[in-house]
Amino acid sequence: MVIPREAADPIRALVADYPVVAITGPRQSGKTTLARTLFADLGYLSLEDPDVRQRAIDDPRAFLADCGEGAVLDEVQRVPELFSYLQGAVDEDPRPGRFILTGSQQFGLLAGITQSLAGRVALVPLLPFTLRELESCGNTPADLRALLYGGLFPPIHDRGLDPHVWCANYVQTYLERDVRQMLNVRDLRAFQLFLRMCAARCGQLVNLSALASDCGITHNTAKAWLSVLEASYVVHLLPPHHANFSKRLVKTPKLYFHDPALVSWLLGIRSPAELATHSMRGPLFETWVVSELLKARFNRGLTSNLFFWRDRAGLEIDVLVDRGVELVPVEIKSGRTLASDSFGGLARWRELAGDRAGAGWLVHGGDEEHSRDGCRALPWRGIDRLAADVLAR
């Protein structure tokens, strides 16, 4: 069964306006399935196939001419030379929706788009399932621990796979191979340690010097490896917001993963039950909430407007949604029970922000829902309401 994706309608709308639409995102997020489902009338060619790739390299003009009315070109960054010829093809025939590109590495894909297809292509990142997409097919997680352990990558849920086994294969089959393609990594064990150290710092400020020291690598190597993980849609660096409200601000981004299952595996968590008391339960919950809010933007064809805010005095807002004239603060707490001071940080920040402050939100790991002092507490299962009310505007 093909699970309907929320990004489908925005992609259809973009295809009506642009000759090229590029769907990017992490490996195994469903890009190919979505492209082939939406554009079944177009031919399909995977540049991962050595024979297809060689044809595109040897004679790119003939390769594109053979596409006829158009085609879905999968993992197109594998043949970067093709982008210049795509430019010529769509300039000669600029009909909308001729080519659908997919790619799982931002470096190659975005470089090709920037150099050759600027103004001719619309870009849509596709991350793993949202909670609502998962629930729509009857795969509702039993509880929050099951969600954080199992994550939302499509193959785990489409085929009922063991998340622990799947994540191990994912890291070895895709991440390590991609790293070898993008960087000359000689010591794979050091990179594996780097991945685990990133998982252990999920939800924290990025400290490249500490990461490098813990992994026995140079600062520049740590910076390059983190860039690869970000370009491969494994991690997301949440930037700090610049609004200072007369306070000195932290200027370093925070590190999150796009899916909690990978973090759980990298941390050595073997079952959902372990998450009941695990010290990383809070950061895992944070990484899932941030990823859901990013998906809400991307699935509507929008770019991220998410930040965090922290001043030198220690006041912090986990996620700040910048809506231009209004800043919407979101706090994230993994606990099931809301304490009497749960809204304290939101209230202090809204007082500092004054007229720019929107209504505050608190997403938590329980089932309660109520409002207080201009802030609303929302259970984790209701996160799509936060996305609909705040992020789509």
Percentage beta strand: 15-25%
Order of helices and strands: HEHEHHEHEHEHHHHHHHEEHHEEEHEEEH
Low-confidence stretches: none
Quick one: how many beta strands? 13
**What number is the mean pLDDT?**
90
**Biggest sheet architecture:** 6 strands, mixed
Question: Can you describe this structure?
Answer:
The chain has about 400 residues and is an alpha/beta fold. It has three domains: about 10-125, P-loop containing nucleotide triphosphate hydrolases (Rossmann fold); about 130-245 and about 255-280, no CATH class; about 305-390, Trna Endonuclease, Chain: A, domain 1, CATH 3.40.1350. Helix content is about 45%, strand content about 15%. The protein contains 17 helices and 13 strands. It has helices spanning about 10-15, 30-40, 50-60, 60-65, 80-90, 105-115, 130-135, 145-150, 155-160, 165-180, 190-200, 210-215, 220-230, 260-265, 280-300, 345-355, 385-390; strands at about 20-25, 45, 70-75, 100-105, 120-125, 235-240, 255, 305-310, 315-320, 325-335, 360-365, 370, 375-380. The chain has a six-stranded mixed β-sheet with strand order 8-9-10-11-13-12, with helices on both faces. The radius of gyration is 22 Å and the shape is globular. It starts with 7 loop residues before the first helix and ends with a helix.
Based on the model shown, name its key terms.
alpha/beta; five-stranded parallel beta sheet; single chain; six-stranded mixed beta sheet; 17 helices; Trna Endonuclease, Chain: A, domain 1; 3 domains; 393 residues; Rossmann fold
Summarize the structure.
The chain is of the alpha/beta class and 393 residues long. 43% of the residues lie in helices and 16% in strands.
